[in-house]
Design goal:
By secondary structure, the protein is mostly helical. It is about 85% helix and about 0% strand. The longest helix has about 30 residues, at about 195-225. The relative contact order is 0.14.
């Protein structure tokens, strides 16, 4: 049930991120980032993917639920999938610099000398570069590997529908190229939103059903003993 709730929570957070991206101008340079954080810190944090920190944590929890549901089909592959996903979560947490940028923007607004502003501009540019740098790309690819592995196990398990497995494979394939990899990565990341929504909804529904029936199955097994 916890895994199901985590999957459905991600579904609820994604529209918030999309609304912010569509409703506010996305900064294209450091000056615009600092101005956005000074004008509306919450929008700035969301634009720098602070909600993805929550998304990644929730998806990690969901994968723990998937492991319990699918370990009977392939314990080794599900162990690999969960391990890779947790590595992806840890790597993403290391890459996200939203709160660093918030702190720098406040220091920049309070700076009184050109020398201090120059230092904060250099720090801000480094922070933006790190935000979607190597760690972000590694996390993105690791997440795709975890999705592909778990979806392949779904096709063998009989626990999840075959549609869930195929949608997951589509989602994973579209997620292999990081969103930071130019226009191709951006287009693929936008396309992946559709199968992601369907996949998470199907997983949430199945995990919730399994969670509700698990106590009944356990009680039946105990009675037989």
């Amino acid at each position: 049930k916890i895994g199901a709730a985590a999957a459905l929570a991600v579904l609820a957070l994604v529209p918030i991120q999309l609304l912010v991206f569509v409703g506010w101008h996305f900064p294209s340079n450091l000056a615009e980032w600092y101005a956005l954080f000074e004008r509306n810190p919450l929008v700035g944090l969301i634009d720098m993917d602070v909600l993805l920190l929550v998304d990644n944590l929730l998806i990690g929890v969901m994968f723990l639920g998937l492991y319990v549901a699918l370990r009977g089909a392939s314990r080794s592959w599900m162990l690999i999938a969960v391990t890779v996903e947790l590595l992806a979560v840890a790597t993403y947490f290391a890459s996200n610099t939203a709160f660093d940028m918030l702190s720098l923007s406040r220091q920049y607004a309070a700076a009184t000398t050109d020398a201090r502003r120059s230092v904060l501009i250099a720090a801000g540019e480094a922070t933006v570069a790190r935000w979607q740098g190597s760690a972000f790309a590694v996390s993105y690819v690791l997440g795709a590997v975890a999705i592909l592995a778990s979806s392949a196990v779904m096709l063998r398990s009989g626990v999840f529908s075959r549609a869930t497995g195929y949608v997951g494979l589509t989602f994973g394939a579209l997620s292999v190229v990081p969103a930071s990899a130019g226009s191709v990565g951006l287009v693929l990341s936008l396309l992946s939103l559709i199968p992601m929504w369907v996949w998470l909804a199907l997983i949430g529904r199945t995990l919730w059903r399994l969670g509700r029936t698990a106590p009944t199955r356990a009680a039946t097994a105990a009675g037989r003993q």
